[in-house]
Amino acid sequence: MTLNRRSFLASTAAATGALMMPAIARAQDAIRVGTVLDVSGIFDAYGTPMDMAQRLAVQEINDAGGLLDRPVELVSYDTQSDMALYTQYAQRLVRQDNVDVVHGGILSASREAIRQTLRRANTLYFYNVQYEGGVCDRNAFFNGVTPAQQAEVLVPWAMSRSGPRVYILAADYNYGQITARWLQKYIADNDGETVGVDFFPLDVADFGSTIARIQTESPDLVIAPLVGGAHLSFFRQWAAAGMNDRIPLASTTMGVGNEHKVLTPEEGNGMMVAYNYSQELDTPLNNAFKERWVAAYGDTDAIHEIAVSHYMGLHLWAEGVRAAGSVDRDAVIEAMEGGLSVEGPSGVMTIDPQTHHATLDVHLMEVRDQKMEVAESLSQRPPVDTQAVCNLTENPDDNTQYEIEF
User: Fold this and answer.
1) Quick one: which of 75, 132, 378, 397 has the most CB atoms within 10 Å?
2) Does any domain span residue 288?
3) Rounded CA gap, 251 and 200, in Å?
């Protein structure tokens, strides 16, 4: 089933509340959507816009009549960037709050902190963030870009603009470790050479010795899957060392949390990225979305890749409930597995029944004056990395995160 452009605009028109509110007033008990996000703490630059996006999505759903003639209610917890709180709040959502679905998690570590709890409780889970791919779990849906959708096109494009010798800097947890292996595969697939790989804990902020090593190695390109505010220091220190004019940079994470707006143009210009979304996408649905965001929040400063992915994920789940005619977990899963899709600010998002991952548009972009300017758009890239190892149609009880081996 497909929610087309016209019905998407109709269902998300924030000005139609007066027409729809009588149905809400007569509704049964609310449908409860649980969320767990880092709205404070060291990852709040990711989590706060995601929280804003989910509130806008729920408002739009309710203004359009709710779901099944019932209002949608958010039950939200701020994990304060503490993995222990992810576990605690996930348990509270299913044991005390009796939510019908959970959307949330930012880091891959936070996803894995709660995914098994939700699976055991038969509570449907949506992870709406780009990640390293490979999770095979029928109880969950994954709506962010994976390496085959993002890095597979970013690597050859960046190498074509620089050269074949590549140095990788990555965050030292499962996202960075697995993504670094994918990057090495794609570098080799394109006749390149990985000349160095370094991993950094999330609290590391001093990259002086690393920059010295890179200067000694003198690669043609540096690719940096670095994560969080501390790692933002690398890009500043890189520019301060005069390296921006010597060795090009690409990243699978820079800009996903609007980091390119925090850096000065001198620090960020020229960086190459590939994402599902940019504020610079000039489409009717993106422009309408930004207008609704401004009406709700005053400006578009906070909008970023995973905020939009989270927003789209909530609308995708809502369409699954409509298609199922129920909030029952199994009914919604079956409806989603029918190849259900929605169209919104980032384009068309379509569920792949085999993996529960999304097929997405991807845009090759260059950071220029604190904007992500689109150089090339690639339509509807499937999650082929996860398709190679996960088949929930044949193995519905699979519960594995597969990792790349090459």
Assistant:
1) 132
2) yes
3) 15
- For 366, what's the count of Cα atoms within 13 Å in the CB-facing half-sphere? 9
The CATH number of the domain where 134 resides is what? 3.40.50.2300
pTM: 0.89
The answer for residues whose C-beta is within 8 angstroms of residue 151's C-beta and 6 or more apart is 179, 182, 183, 186, 252, 274
Distance CA 164, CA 131 (A): 25
pLDDT at 230: 84
Task: Look over the chain and give the mean of its residue pLDDT values, rounded to a whole number.
Answer: 91
| Rounded Cα gap, residues 370 and 376, in angstroms | 18
Handedness of CA 269, 374, 252, 307 (dihedral sign): positive
Q: Is residue 107 part of a domain?
A: yes
Same domain, 284 and 135: yes
- Check residue 67 and report its DSSP letter: B
SS3 81: coil
Q: Nearest to residue 144, comparing CAs of 361, 398, 302?
A: 361
Determine the pLDDT at residue 2. 35
- The DSSP element (H or E) to which 115 belongs, if any, is helix 108-120
Q: Is the separation of the CB atoms in 196 and 168 below 8 Å?
A: yes
Q: Measured on CA atoms in the order 378, 380, 386, 389, is the torsion positive or negative?
A: negative
Give residue 406's pLDDT: 66
133 shares its domain with 165? no
Residues 42 and 9 in one domain: yes
Per-residue model confidence as pLDDT tens digits over 261-277: 889 999 999 999 999 99
Do the Cβ atoms of 102 and 114 come closer than 8 Å? yes
- pLDDT tens-digit map of 76-90: 999 999 999 999 999
Give the structural domain span for 129: 2-145+279-361+388-401
Q: How confident is the model at residue 16 (pLDDT cuts 50, 70, 90)?
A: very low
> How confident is the model over 136-145, as a mean pLDDT?
97
The number of distinct structural domains making up the chain is 2
The helix (run of H) or strand (run of E) holding residue 350 is strand 347-352
